[in-house]
Specification:
By secondary structure, the chain is mainly alpha-helical. It contains 19 helices and no strands. It is globular.
């Protein structure tokens, strides 16, 4: 039975797009970045931290394997709400097990479950975004989407890490908290994350629209799902320009993949080893204030910039703004400035470019890679390829950084961004943009109006507005 209803006031995109994408980003960032800091505070060996925090990120890479099943069972809204609640409960459970002996293995198991829930949430949330919003509105609100997804990153790395350090020092009464103090601090932080996700899930059960009909469960089966998965994969790899698009997705974020894991280590390393010797609190301040403000401004401006000019005309500019600011870290590594404003300014410049340029790749995958019969699944496939690239480059970035040193490492990253510029300049578009469709429709309408004036009546079956002639 269809659940289609008239759009309510609460279903305005600004009532759910920002919060849904904040809820999407939070589990990913906590598992990908914050967990490593937490395990370091808990005195887990570096090798174990690097290996397991990388391994648990696999669901975001392979989520396309179960994305077709989400189009068979229930609605997209159901999976958005339920996975937020599940992830919140799992973070609460993680907080409770921190004080048990050998909690590391148990936490990794819980975080692996969070990863599966979070990856499923990503598929469903993107599906709601694409199915509920027109192409024009996708462009208009893509800035809000990207801003709040990555705001979760800044809140987690800039706020939660610093909060854990402040709480640990408070519990210890000194500047040298022990493992037990960090255990108490992280118990509060993980509990707060869980509570926040539970509240968001409750809110989204009301705010998120769901005009799509629910699939009938008796018609769904594993055989259908497996057959649909085969169909999705085969259809994906037969898309026009798909291999060009896959290479573009990988190269666009290549520089980011290399620097993502290294930048915090560089900022915290002592000056003798080429770092800037910043404290956790300083890093939290720079990311959470200067970086956060610059990122939000960049993301919001990018959405309206693309909506005004169109993605095709904007994409090369977006690629440049995304990748060129990585030179800020190379400059910091070569000159190692001691002035706070220089370091904060460099981080702000890079985060503005990151926020502005990231939405370009997101919208490209939505409007050029995903369109077709399996839109939600193909977007999940494309984003999985993107995450796989970032995961692999992040995994090897430490070895390269150790071999080259921070200054030459960040210089090499700039060289690695060059192929992205070349591919972006020449990239073909398979689908018309909404601005082009609007122009075509207006022209069709104008032509029809002229014909009506000349003939006093329109030809039978001809629809004003171009709806029947648009491909």
């Amino acid at each position: 039975m269809s659940s289609s209803k008239p759009t309510k006031k609460s279903s305005h995109p600004l009532g759910w797009v920002p919060t849904v994408y904040f809820a999407m980003g939070l589990p990913f960032v906590v598992l990908n970045m914050v967990a490593a800091v937490m395990f370091k505070n808990l005195e887990i060996p570096n090798a174990s931290i690097a290996f397991w925090t990388s391994l648990i990120m696999w669901p975001w890479t392979i989520k396309f394997l179960w994305s077709p099943f989400l189009e068979i069972f229930k609605t997209k809204k159901f999976f958005v709400v339920s996975t937020q609640i599940i992830s919140g409960a799992l973070f609460g459970l993680a907080a409770l097990v921190l004080n048990i002996p050998d909690c590391f293995a148990v936490l990794i198991a819980i975080f692996a479950a969070v990863a599966f829930s979070g990856a499923t949430h990503d598929i469903a949330a993107d599906g709601v975004y694409m199915s509920e919003l027109s192409s024009k509105h996708q462009s208009q609100y893509i800035g809000w989407q990207g801003a709040f997804y990555n705001l979760a990153k800044l809140v987690a790395t800039g706020g939660l890490v610093g909060l854990a350090g402040i709480l640990a020092r408070h519990f210890s009464g000194s500047d040298t908290p022990t493992r037990s103090h960090y255990l108490d601090a992280w118990m509060i932080v993980l509990g707060a994350i869980g509570l926040l996700l539970l509240l968001l899930g409750t809110y989204h059960s009301w705010a998120v629209p769901s005009k799509a009909a629910s699939a009938t469960s008796n018609a769904a089966s594993m055989r259908q799902g497996i057959g649909k998965l085969r169909e999705v994969i085969a259809d994906f790899f037969t898309k026009r320009y798909i291999w060009y698009y896959i290479a573009f997705i990988i190269l666009y974020r290549l520089g980011e993949g290399f620097v993502m894991k290294i930048v915090p280590l560089f900022l915290m390393s002592d000056r003798a080893s080429g770092g800037l010797e910043l404290s956790n609190e300083e890093i939290g301040l720079y990311y959470g204030s200067f970086g956060s403000a610059a990122f939000l401004i960049g993301s919001l401006l990018a959405g309206y910039f693309i909506a005004h000019r169109g993605l095709k005309k904007s994409l090369f500019s977006l690629c440049c703004i995304f990748n060129i600011p990585f030179v800020a870290y190379a400059m910091l590594a070569w000159f190692q400035p001691e002035q706070i404003w220089i370091t904060a300014g460099a981080i702000a410049v890079e985060y503005f470019g990151y926020g502005f340029g990231f939405v370009g790749l997101t919208l490209f995958m939505m409007q050029q890679v995903a369109p077709g019969k399996h839109q939600m699944a193909h977007y999940a496939f494309a984003s999985g390829i993107m995450n796989f690239s970032v995961m692999l480059t992040g995994a090897v970035s430490g070895y390269i950084s150790d071999a080259l040193g921070y200054n030459w490492f960040f210089t090499a990253v700039m060289v690695a961004t060059v192929p992205a510029f070349i591919m972006t300049w020449f990239i073909p578009f398979s689908h018309k943009e909404c601005t082009e469709e609007k122009t075509d429709n207006q022209n069709t309408t104008n032509d029809h109006e002229q014909e009506t004036e000349n003939n006093d009546s329109a030809p039978a079956g001809y629809a004003v507005g171009g709806e029947t002639v648009r491909e």
